[in-house]
Amino acid sequence: MQFDISRKELLDGLVLLQLSGKARQPSPISQFLKLEASTPDSLTLSACDLEIFFNARVNADIATEGSCLLPGRKLYDLLRHLPEGPVRFLLEENHYASIQCKNCHIRLAGSSTEEFPSFPESHKEAQASLCLPLEDLSDMLKTVLFCVNETDARAALTGVLVQTVVSKKDPSICYLRAVSSDGHRLALSQVPLKNAPTGLFPEEGVLLPKRACQEIVRLSQNKEDRLSPIFVEFLPSLVRVFTDRLKFISRYIEASFPPYQTLLDRPSATTRAKLKRQVLLDSLKRFQAITSPLYPDISFQLSPECIALKSYNPEVGEMREEVPLDENPGEPVLISFNARSMLECLVAFPGQEVWMSLWGREEPAILRSSTSKERGELLALIMPIQGPES
Q: At 264, phi and psi to the nearest 5?
């Protein structure tokens, strides 16, 4: 195998393949990248850790076809410090790769491609598929990741439920929805689909691992791909995401997400306040100096004029702050929340305003941020904790 490629082109491809996070069952093969030259003008780079499979195509001048495995991190570090210019690769005997860039010559030890697993997609037809901007998919997933459970105690809570739903108000509108929960909170984000999914999307949806969602979010940070149309195919046991130059495959989590719709289908709230998101966010950040893991609660006293926030920590002291309201929220109520949980919800929310709906001090609250119809909707349900009576 021999090819010439620009340093920047190869480096950009390697950046795409730097898998984030750690696999549950680390494999030595995850340390290697597969380089495959099979067409005259492009090189295919592949990475996998047995949970996530990833490949990207970069432009290259292929002189001789072939393939090899090279240590991914070592190759990335070497290229990062090479001078700008064309790079020549030549595969030598015993899986050594000769890399030449201007006056720098490197021989990097590789391995046989026989050890690299094949992508788990052969001869599988998609049950359902859809097309949408990568930015939309990324933003939808990013806003619910904060609510994913970090432990493996309940497998269904370690990922994000993705499903399609039809609008109750207008059956002609179909949404792609993402839902996550850590057992104490629930986050939901959805975006309208311009084109309905083709095929039969599973009614119960599919559970994507958190790492898979993080990779999709990371992909959108690349300016070249952010606004690109992205195709998503849902196969019986895995999801396949691809654009013109990259392909990403991940297995599902084999578990059933808890039924959540009954928590959202509720009568009109008895108390409903419209808040400036940044004002409340800044206030909660100040309360972090008072709260602690042992004393995490902060009380919300809603009255016609304001929300009085209060926290008491016998080890540190106490704090009180009032957030004014522009209109009467309804029935006065005193309710307490975990300060960090509420703060994380607000950080994930877009927009300048948030609606807080309450049904009493012992019922969960719903925070809702509605943006334009094109950008969909985000809401979070948060359980109260036992707080002071006054």
A: -95, -25
Q: For 26-30, 78-82, 249-253, 290-294, which range has the lowest pLDDT when averaged over its residues? A: 26-30
Q: What percent of the chain has pLDDT over 70?
A: 92
What are the C-alpha distances in Å from 362 to residues 332, 334, 358, 384? 14, 10, 10, 6
Q: What is the pLDDT of residues 116-154, one digit of tens each?
A: 888 766 556 778 888 888 888 888 999 999 999 877 678
Q: Is the pLDDT of residue 365 over 90?
A: yes
Rounded to the nearest integer, the mean pLDDT of the chain is: 87
- Domain boundary pick from 226, 251, 276: 251
Please indicate, yes or no, if residue 388 is contained in any of the structural domains. Answer: no
What b/e readout covers 24-51, taking b as 16+ CB neighbours within 10 angstroms? eeeeebbbbbbbbbeeeebbbbbbbbeb
> Tens digits of per-residue pLDDT, 228-262?
678 888 888 888 888 878 888 898 998 999 999 98
Distance of alpha carbon 61 from alpha carbon 9, whole angstroms: 12
Q: 304: which 2 tokens?
A: 């016609």
Same domain, 187 and 212: yes
- For the record, the structure tokens of 232 come out as 């998503």
Q: Residue 257 is encoded by which pair of tokens?
A: 């997400």
For residue 87, give the 3-state DSSP assignment: strand
Tokens describing residue 221 = 């940070």
137 and 204 share one domain: yes
368 domain residue, yes or no: yes
Do 370 and 349 fall within a single domain?
A: yes
If one counts the domains in the chain, the total is 3
Q: Is 31 helix (H, G, I), strand (E, B) or coil?
A: helix
Which of 33, 22, 16, 20 is closest to 74 using CA atoms? 33
Domain boundary among 251, 277, 292: 251
Contacts of 206 by beta carbon, 8 Å cutoff, 6+ apart: 161, 162, 163, 234, 239, 252
Tell me the three state secondary structure of residue 282: helix
Q: Which tokens sit at 174?
A: 């179909």
Instruction: Note whether residue 175 is domain-resident.
Output: yes
Using DSSP's 3-state secondary structure scheme, residue 324 falls into: strand
- Average pLDDT, stretch 366-370? 85
Domain of 56 in residue numbering reads as 2-115
55 Cβ neighbours under 8 A, 6+ residues apart: 17, 34, 44, 45, 46, 47, 119, 246, 247
Q: Would you call 93 exposed, middle or buried from its count of C-beta atoms within 10 A (0-12, 13-18, 19+)? A: exposed
